[in-house]
Amino acid sequence: MNPLVLLLGGFFVLIAFRVNIGFALILSSVFVILWEDLPLTSVVNQMYSNIDSFTLMAVPFFMFLGRILNAGSITTRLLEVSNATVGYVRGGLGHVNVFVSMVFASLSGSAAADTASVGSILIPAMKKAGYDPAFSVALTAASSTLGVIIPPSIILIVYGAFGNVSIGALFLGGVVPGVTIGLFMMGYTFVMAIRHGYPANPFPGMATLARALWRGAAALLIPVFVLGGVVAGVFTPTEAAISAVVWALFLTVVMYRDIPLRELPGHLSRAAVEFSVPLFTVAGAGIFGWLIAFLGAADTVVNFITSQTDSPLGIILLLIGFLLLIGTVLNPISAVLIFLPIIQGLGDLAGMDPVHMGVLTTIVLSVGLITPPYGICLLIASQIGDVALGRAMLAVLPIVGLTVLVAVLSFFVPDLVLGLPRLVSPHLFP
C-alpha cells in the first residue's frame, strides 16, 4: 500500500473514532515508520525539534493573557466602549457584539476565549432584546473568529514560526482583511435588523462616550505593545506577549484590583495546562509533517492540481476548498502544522507572496471554528444560547459566505493583505 495513503488514511480513521489529534498524529506516523522500516529515533527527533521554538512560547502567554482579561473587568470595559461607539446603530447589540470581538481580537488572539467571555454577556442580552436566538449565537461565534485573523493571532504566529515568514508582516497583513470581515458582519447585522425589526440603543451622549473611552483606554494599549513592538523590531512575538501580560496584570491587580494576588497562580497553572494540549499536538505534527514531506505529499498534491488547472485562480480556489474541508475536522493550528508544505507549495505555484498566502490560509481556516464537527466556537456559543447546533449552523452560513468572499477578494486585490505591510515594512518585500 502507498505509505502516504496509509499515513493520511490512518490519521483520519483515528480522528473518526474521536482519538485525540496529538495521539492520532503520533500513532499513524509511528505505524508508517514501522511499515517503511525507518528509524524510530526519527519520532523523538522530529517531535522535539518542532517544539524547540522560542517563538512558540508566545502562545501560552497569549492564553494566559486571555484568562486575565476574562477574570478582570477589562472585557466589561471593552463592552462599554463598544456600546457607546456603535450601540446606537440599528441592530445595536449585534454591532456591539462584532465591534467588541474586533477589539478583543487585538488583545488576546484567542477565538474560543472571545466566544466564552463576550458570548456569556451578549447572547442573553440579545435574546432578551428580541433578537433571534440562532442569529445571536451565529453572530457571536462568527465574530469571535476575528481573533485568529486580527493580530495578535496565534495562528499567524505558528504559520510564521514554522513557515519561515515574518510574523510582523503577517500581523500587519491580517489587519485590513480582519477589519473588512468585521465590517461585512456589521453590514449583515444591519440588514437583518431592518428585516426583523431589531432595535437600536439610544445614543448615550458625548459625555458617556468619552467616559467609556477613558475607562477602556488603558486596555486598548495592549495592541500597541504587541503589534507596534513586533513591527518596529523592539520585541520578538514572545517578548511582546510577555509585555502584554505584564501590562494586563498591572491593570487587573494594581489599578482595577479585579484579581487578588492569591488567585494568579491558579490562572497561570490553568493556562499552562491548556497550553499542554496544543503543544502535544505541535509535537505530533512534527513527525507527521516530516513524513508528509519525506513521502513527497506536497509534490503529489501540486502535480495533481496542476493536472486539473494551471490557472492561479483555479489553484487558489482548489486550495480554499481543501482548507475549508480539513477545517471541519482539524483545529487551525493542527491544519497549518500538518499541511504547511502543501499550502506553501501551492502558494508558490500560484505566484503568491508568502505573507499573502499565510493570511489567506488563516482567513479560510478560521471558518473551521464555526463549522461542525470541529466548530469549537459555534459549539460554545450554542451551549451559552441554548440553541440546537443545526439551527445555529444554518444561521451562520451567510456569515461563512462573507468570510470566504473576503478570502477570494484578497486574491484579486492583493493590497487588501499586502498594502499595510508594504507601507510599514517595505524592506520585507522585493
Topology at a glance:
Layout (H helix, E strand, L loop, with lengths): L2 H14 L4 H15 L5 H11 L6 H14 L2 H13 L5 H17 L2 H18 L4 H12 L9 H10 L3 H30 L9 H12 L4 H10 L5 H19 L8 H31 L2 H12 L3 H16 L4 H18 L4 H13 L9 H10 L3 H24 L2 H10 L6
Structure description:
The protein contains 21 helices and no strands. Helix 10 (167-196) crosses helix 20 (389-412) and helix 18 (354-366) runs antiparallel to helix 20. Helices cover 77% and strands 0% of the residues. The chain has 430 residues and is mainly α. The radius of gyration is 21 Å and the shape is globular. It has one domain (3-428).
Give the C-alpha Rg.
21 Å
Number of strands: 0
Instruction: Tell me roughly what share of residues is in helical segments.
Output: over 70%
- Order of SSEs, N→C? HHHHHHHHHHHHHHHHHHHHH
Structural class: mainly alpha
**Shape by Cα distribution:** globular
Question: What keywords describe this structure?
Answer:
mainly alpha, globular
Short description:
Helix content is 77%, strand content 0%. The protein is an all-alpha fold.
